[in-house]
Amino acid sequence: MSTLLEVRDLVKTFGEGETATRVLRGLNLTLAQGDLAALLGPSGSGKSTLLTILGTLMRPTSGSHVMLSMDMTRASDAELTDFRNRHIGFVFQFHHLLPDFTALENVVFPTAVGVGRETRAAKERGRELLQRVGLSDRVHFRTTQLSGGQKQRVAVARALMNRPELVLADEPTGNLDRESAGRVMELLKEINKEERTTFLISTHDEKIAAACRRQVRVVDGTAVADEVSLS
Amino acid sequence: MIYCFKFAWRYLTSSKLQTGLLVLGVAVGVFVFVFISALIGGLGSFLVDRTVGDISHVTVETPRLDPVLLMAPADGSIQAVYQREVGQREILRTADAFLPSLETLVGVKAVSPQIIGNGFVIRGQSRAPVAVTGVESQKVSAIADIASNLRSGEARLTNSTVIIGVRMADDLGIGVGQIINLQSDRGVERSLVVTGLFSLGVEALDARAAFVSLAAARSLFDLEQGINRIEIKLDDLEAADDYAQRIAAMTGLKATSWTEGNAQLIEGLSAQANSGDLIKAFALVTIVIGVASALLLSTYRRRPEIGIMRAMGASRAFVVGVFVIQGTLIGVIGGVAGAIIGYLVLSPFPLPENAPPGGFPIDARQGAYAVAVVLTTIGAIFASILPARAAARVDPVEVIGS
């Protein structure tokens, strides 16, 4: 499998001087296209910081970060915004949908904000994705009219809208009941298998981690174990 | 831009009460702007109309020329003192040549060739000084609206009639149909029948002015041909200075605008207009502060959404666009609403020229509606820039983390 993303000697320090806190301490990680990886580790280990850096929302203090042959540490803010829009999808623990918009409008947002309008093709893709996540009957519902599980499935559809190579999910099932969590996880696996979208899922849930083919453990800001399941 | 507009509109319509109050606030500000414009403009028109409505807007006369000194110095120099002959009246002998072109000038409402002079009205033992104006019989009301301000009689002049002010009539104890003797400063005396009494509300005219026909004035002032001056009334008296310059260039004569003799009135009107502008500026500042504070609150309230949009790939320009368009929409909608309310409220007021004494001289035509809407929209756009920039600086990491 070809390399999608590679970080080397990644360091992230917050604050300066005596109050400086080094969250990532020379972390190395490579993700291949089609990976379905779980990011494990105790709270404060640096998982969220790593996801934020990989999502180009934050720059590392030092180290290299290359994705799709583009050096993220040298890219401008506008370039990172554009790259993020086209190549990276996000699923957060809290769905973070736009409350004044419908499910479909939320899903097509990444495409529409890139081209400046909601095209017919984008709406068609949005409907397909909502159908795929089992919400074809909720297309025009405001997000305030959806349950927690439904909102999270809309968030998954939104993350996939631009056919990103990488989807970063931060505790995507952490706020859901067991049944909804299971459905969302099944959905992620299905999309990974069918579209070869790379997933990096931060989780505390060992069952979720076990469902992934790869488990990356982060302790004290470094990846200490990288296990690949054969199943 | 279309997508920015969609977001801006959705944000405004999703908080209907807040948006409604904001638009109402802007509309009230615009209403104040329109009201002050109409009031100050109407008051100005009212004052000008009442003060100079019955006088000439441009007066054309022969320029007074000093005679050339014909003595040539033989050797050395000559010291001479020349005293101007004040009794001599300048005569326009070539008036007939350019009167037609003045009458056809665009913007000229009326042209009145006149013979003027001083004299006395004699009735029994009473003698009252009088300023006599000889006008064309059919143009009695061309400059001063005598016809509309007649207290009794009629505004009709013949070779043997005169129209005088009510004050003069009271002082002399005469009425319509009675005869007065008019003696000019040339020593000519004529008996004329009083056909009308006017009251223009201007003391100098009501107590001292007498109108006669041009023919009567010719005999009174011993003027066989020519006239003394031409009085011109314009459609727009504020353009009098420009017209005076044009007419002077056209005729080679001295043309004087009404503003030259009413500097204090002009100064007063200017001060009044400045006061109005100040009040309007305060109204605009209030609108700007109101819009800015409301949008800043909206920015704060929508920080999580802005962060998510940025995370999903929305550029800073997109976020700025959403908030600037919100400001623009508030400005346009509030501005148009305020202008419409202003027009509806002001329309029932009578126009200044018809305003009753003691009433509000509000001129709905001078509401400056378009200016109010344009300035409000520009103000609202400026007001939205600060919140928009604040929104664009929202860090998605902070928002997602919280």
UniProtKB/TrEMBL annotation, chain A:
Task: Report the source organism.
Answer: Nitratireductor indicus C115
Database matches in InterPro entries: AAA+_ATPase, ABC_transporter-like_ATP-bd, ABC_transporter-like_CS, ABC_transpr_LolD-like, MacB-like_ATP-bd, P-loop_NTPase
Q: Which SMART domains match?
A: AAA
Question: In Gene Ontology terms, what is one molecular function of this protein?
Answer: ATP binding
Domain ABC transporter positions = 5-230
Cite a GO CC annotation: plasma membrane
Q: Which UniProt keywords apply?
A: ATP-binding, Cell inner membrane, Cell membrane, Membrane, Nucleotide-binding, Translocase, Transport
- PROSITE patterns linked to this entry: ABC_TRANSPORTER_1, ABC_TRANSPORTER_2
Q: Which family does it belong to?
A: Belongs to the ABC transporter superfamily. Macrolide exporter (TC 3.A.1.122) family.
Record's protein name = ABC transporter
From TrEMBL, chain B:
Residue intervals of the MacB-like periplasmic core domain = 19-249
Tagged with keyword Cell inner membrane: no
Q: Pfam families per the record?
A: FtsX (PF02687), MacB_PCD (PF12704)
Q: Which UniProt keywords apply?
A: Cell membrane, Membrane, Transmembrane, Transmembrane helix
What GO biological process terms does the UniProt entry carry, in alphabetical order?
lipoprotein localization to outer membrane
Residue ranges the record marks as coiled coil: none
Q: What is its main location?
A: membrane
Q: Name one GO cellular component term.
A: plasma membrane protein complex
User: Does the record carry Thylakoid as a key word?
Assistant: no
**Which parts of the sequence belong to the ABC3 transporter permease C-terminal domain?**
281-396
Q: Which family does it belong to?
A: Belongs to the ABC-4 integral membrane protein family. LolC/E subfamily.
Protein name (database record): ABC transporter permease
